[in-house]
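call fold(seq) -> tokens
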Amino acid sequence: MAHPTPNESWPEEESWPVEDESPASFDAILRPHRSLSPAGFAILMSAVATVGFGAGIAFLAMGAWPVFGFCGLEVVLIYVCFRLNYRSGRMFERVRLTDRELIVERHSPRGTPLGWRFQPYWLRVTMDDPPQHDSPLTLRSHGRSLVIGNFLTPEERLDFARALNRALAQQRMAPTG
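ret:
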């Protein structure tokens, strides 16, 4: 089954970040999970460097001096990969439901914001239940769709979809004044 990708064809808003701080009945910030703490990263890199340097010294002692450089290169590549992973962890999405609209802000790892606005009465939140690994959390309105929370686990996406659907239902039931 083909799932929609984050829809770049949805028009981006002109004025981002959103300055409208009207009271929100639902406000969530979605962030990628990073299980390795900075202290854990330092310990891991120390262990990798120690093993790499030790193996390099052993190969150097056996006369295979070119291997020593590759052991150091391996440590550098592991470090760079982890730093890139931590950098991607700086991205986040904010979902706010006010009395007039649902606002989705997506901030890239560089901090560049993209945003979308939805009229909440026409908005549909869809998610496979039970979720599969590639089940998208999709916001649909007026024939267009936007996928959010791709970095969340399937269970987290389903929990978020349920919470957002509850908030939308409560807002639709509320008397307008």
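The first strand starts at residue 24 and ends at 30.
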